[in-house]
Write a structure and sequence with these properties.
CBS-domain; three-stranded mixed β-sheet; 13 helices; binds zinc ion
Length: 368
Amino acid sequence: MRSSFRLFKVLGISIEVHITFILFLLLVLIAGPATFVFFFIIFSIILAHELCHSIAAILSGIPVPRIILLPFGGLASIELPENPLTELKISLSGPFFNFFLAGISLALIKLLSLHLFGYGQLLDMLVEGNTGIFTASYVLSMLAMVNLLLGLFNMLPAFPMDGGRVFRSILALWIDYAKATQIAGRIGQMVFLLLVLAGILTFNIWWIIVGLFLMYASGGEVKFVLLKKTFQGLLMRDIISEQRKLPIVEGSVFVKDFMTMFAKPDQRFYLIANQDGTLKGILDLNEVSQASMQEKLKTVGSLAKEDYETVEGSVSVEEGMKKILSNDITLIADGDVVLGYMTPELFFEMTQFYSLKNKPENKTLSIS
Ligand SMILES: [Zn+2]
């Protein structure tokens, strides 16, 4: 099932809403028009914040395929380079936008001698349905407060918040990138744990959800960076062994015959060939249904998955691992020649080996 839906496209970036966001929107609509307008403004600001990160990324030559809105914020899918200065620029651009907008709003309030409402007042007026919410004072105060809070929250030195990334990139100017990520990640875990605890103590379910989500996101990103380091310097072709050859079966073979003649209990994937010997697709035993076994004339060719993913053998593991981890199977190829394959399971099995192998040698004392 699809988990997010596109709203529109801007600067080549697909702006999408997560399915949980749609449910959240329904709740907000039920709560009344004032609440809806309130959240509409907040999410427009969050979207603008993510767009600022994205523009900074695009200017640094990094493509941004999508921005996803979630009930508790936005996520721009930016593959940050392991370059501290670029990361610093991209991470700072979002909060910078919030502080800039807050500054302009505050300046306008001062210039036009308007009243500045505090955050509590803003919320109270909204809940009361006070008509004052349609005044310039209210709107500008809201812009100032929301942007200030969002900017400050994002600048928490907790990885993977923007502030945590800033902290990591500054650390990475001096120490190893993976080590810097680990330290920033640990601080992040502590800050988010505090957020969850504060949420429990004050019965604030929102803080608990956001804290747990960020703890999870932080752990995942740290693991990914460490994994990259484990395979540093290796190419995709280096990590496929002789055993990684897939059995080749001709597409015209009937499924029934395939099961008796070719299928093996310890083999899940098979390469399915066209008559001219070219590759048609991959057969995944886990996706062959009982129903297709009943059909006498069903061939393996008709069941082969033709939109399989490939990674060139000459690509570095660091570059190719994202594809491997997000697909059931990825073929490793040298042009048209299939060298072998990789699955997330096989990949994780190898991590221990390579993390031991890539460790700097221990100094041992010699006994003479
Ligand atoms: Zn941000």
